[in-house]
Write a structure and sequence with these properties.
The chain has about 290 residues and is mainly beta. The protein is built from one helix and 22 strands. The chain has two domains: about 110 residues, no CATH class; about 160 residues, no CATH class. Strands 2, 3, 4, 7, 8 and 9 form a six-stranded antiparallel beta sheet that branches. Strands 10-11-14-19-18 form a five-stranded antiparallel beta sheet, with no helix packed on it.
């Protein structure tokens, strides 16, 4: 089985009408850019014209073939076709009966372009991407030896149950991807750390060894399209970010109040308690 992604191509004959296209362009996040095109074609070709503008997915010989929606360039970037409306034009060519609609010679097709979802080169198709950076934390327990309640002659040694804890603040990076056509082999990454630098869409850089894949959720759903049913997935990936790296461990100072992060060794070499793998099959940075 293979996945093929084919650029958009419109083969149906059509003509652009006067006053088309109209553009409403926003830069940055001030609004949503929309372009409207008014086209005219033979009424019998309108269905195919719509499919070729909006894109479609087909299955052949166990392969998935994705035909991308048509794109439109603006100074604010590329937009993709996302909706189509039709209106009859010309003369009626068919008879009107109780069991049929009127047939017309021509159709006016109104195509709208909008800001596109992320182009998913890893999983195929057009998907929606959302990322969240939020705080996370873990507690480190200090050794209780050489610590006391009070000072001087009245000081009382801390019991083992009195050992103080230290809150270490981290980041959790959450990636939500919708309408995925194929899923990565998620179990291969759970509990593993990144062997290469990773980048978030919001501009954060995560050095190798600092991201732990801590969890994942997937939901399967089926959509009815123009050429049949398509199975898609929604996926949530969770990563914990520890700036010094996950193979560094907290070493509280005895009798002090500081925490040093150090590697644990076997007496000769550093021990890797977390296995590093290539996350390129799991995380992608969409354009």
């Amino acid at each position: 089985m293979a996945l093929f992604i084919i650029p958009s191509a419109v083969a149906v004959d059509f003509e652009e009408l006067d006053g088309s296209p109209t553009e409403v362009i926003y830069a940055g996040k001030t609004g949503t850019s929309v372009v409207t095109r008014k086209l005219r074609c033979k009424a019998t070709d309108r269905g195919r014209l719509i499919i070729e503008f909006l894109g479609w997915t087909e299955y052949s010989g166990g392969n998935t073939i994705i035909h991308r929606p048509h794109s439109y360039w603006t100074p604010a970037g590329y937009l993709i076709a996302f909706s189509a409306d039709t209106e009859p034009r010309g003369r009626i060519t068919g008879s009107l009966g109780d069991d049929r609609f009127a047939d017309y010679e021509l159709s006016q097709v109104i195509i709208k372009y909008g800001e596109h979802p992320i182009t998913d080169v890893l999983y195929g198709g057009l998907v929606k991407w959302r990322e969240t950076l939020t705080s996370a934390s873990e507690f480190t327990t200090f050794p209780h030896e050489n610590l006391y309640w009070g000072t001087g002659g009245g000081k009382v040694p801390l019991d083992v149950l009195d050992a103080p804890t230290h809150l270490t603040v981290m980041l959790e990076w959450i990636i939500e991807v919708s309408d995925v056509l194929t899923l990565p082999v998620i179990p291969n990454y759970l509990g593993k750390i990144n062997s290469n630098i990773e980048y978030s869409r919001s501009g954060f850089t995560f050095a190798a060894g600092t991201l732990l894949c801590s969890g994942a959720e997937t939901v399967q759903h089926t959509e009815l399209g123009l050429v049949g049913y398509t199975t898609k997935y929604d996926m949530t990936l969770r990563f914990l970010y520890r700036p010094l790296g996950w193979n560094y461990f907290p070493r509280p100072s005895e009798g002090g109040t500081t925490v040093n992060w150090e590697r644990i060794t076997d007496g000769t070499n550093n021990k890797n308690f977390y296995v590093a793998v290539d996350f390129s099959g799991l995380i992608f940075l969409p354009s």
